[in-house]
Amino acid sequence: MSSRAQVYLLALVFISTGLGLTLYKNRALSFPLSPGSLTRVWEIEAKISFWANQQAITVDLALPQSQHDYQVIDETFASSGYGFDIRKNDEQRRAIWTRREAGGQQTLYYKLKITQQGTEALQIEPPNPSTAPDKLIWTPAQEATAATLIEQARALSADPNSFATQLLKLLKQHESIKGSHSLNDPRNRVSQANLALQLFKRAELASHIVRGISLVDRVHNQAATELIEVFDGRSWHIVDPVAASFGLPEAFFIWQRGGDSLLQLEGGRRSKIRFSLIANDLPAKNVALMHVQDPDSTLTDFNIYSLPVEKQAVFKLLLLVPIGALVVVLFRVLIGIRTSGTFMPVLIAMAFMQTTLLTGVGLLTALVIVGLWIRSYLSQLDLLMVSRIAAVLIVVVMLMAVFSVVSHKLGLEQMLNMTFFPMVILAWTIERLSITWEEDGAREVAVQGIGSLTVAIVAYLAMTNALVGHLTYNFPELLLAVLGIILLLGQYSGYRLNELFRFQSAVE
Questions:
Q1: In the chain, where are the structural domains located?
Q2: Which of 285, 418, 435, 455 could cross-link with 345 by S-S, CB 3.0 to 4.6 Å?
Q3: Which CATH architecture has domain 47-65+78-107+123-283?
Q4: Residues of the chain with pLDDT under 50
């Protein structure tokens, strides 16, 4: 394989890998591509209250899981004086609070945070027959009424979905007429969803109850809403047992699908669970980091968030260096601007980031002019190169100290940041420009000096761009794509932009 083909292959691999990892973090882990993005996070508090009977207590609560468009990112349990455990049975998580003895009013809390995500809805298998609810005990008259409703619904329907709709409508009409044949026992009333579930069970239609809450901001003491999910032989469909309409309500978070009851209590009575909600708009990156900190998260790409904050600040600056290098390559390869040194403009741009642009340009120009004048004087003393550079370095440091003191007296605090200038690079730059002056004249020095300053300014503008800083810090894998682009530019051997103007007269 030729060297050109190897370069193209490496560039393709680097660019594809960088863009692929970036897309993965954005789509799968919800890292935002733009700075300042906000994500709505719902804080839900489930309050469990009951009366304990001075005996052993066991509280069993179904826990929600990530499903549909919502992802659970954090959960906490408040169980003072209670033992606590989480059990998982038949793909359902349940929280268990236990206590040897308790009496009087008791309160437990479960809090979680959820956020919306763009994943596909979960595919749920048909329920296990062993988890089907027990039949209600009905009188012969009630059994006959149920059979009549089922037969009427079958006659008015053509498939499982239409059968469910018609049966729910008939049940609603029947229960609206209070009479002795009502399916709901006045001494032990059950919800409309449970009545419908009993009818579906007698009609041999696979179904289970879905419990959830409506996501409404600043709501307190909200009770769980019960829906029914029916299986038509191919897929599951959610239906509202009261409105007899299919479809999941808008902004509805499913808490439990099938399984046992939402809350079970042993050793107490008058149990109740109520939900309180509040919505907050948080930075999207912080929400994504909550996903990353989840032990079940499948983050496989590089990240620096586990480093100390001080180290993260250093890397945040270092990750901008490849962007400055790309700017230098573009200007030198495609435009043909000559600079003093290859990547000295990148270091100067980093210095500008500490002093601001106008202050940095002024300080750099003053230091280089004074340094060239001192270098020209030292060259007349016939010193060795090492001694000459060391002398220029010392003079540069002294000039920085003088400028800092003067700027402080004048109240120009921004000029105090001039110590961030790379002193050794400045000394070498002054030395290189001096040699260029002796060999090629003042014009070449001006060309290289202006070129270096121009490239440094453009690199500074690119490196201080908010979007660029956000992408390099949160998606460092994009630097692989930058590397691939630089490799491709390394194969360019055509005319530079300045050469088109240079040979314009020959073309004419």
A1: 47-65+78-107+123-283, 312-476
A2: 455
A3: Roll (3.10)
A4: 119-131, 294-301
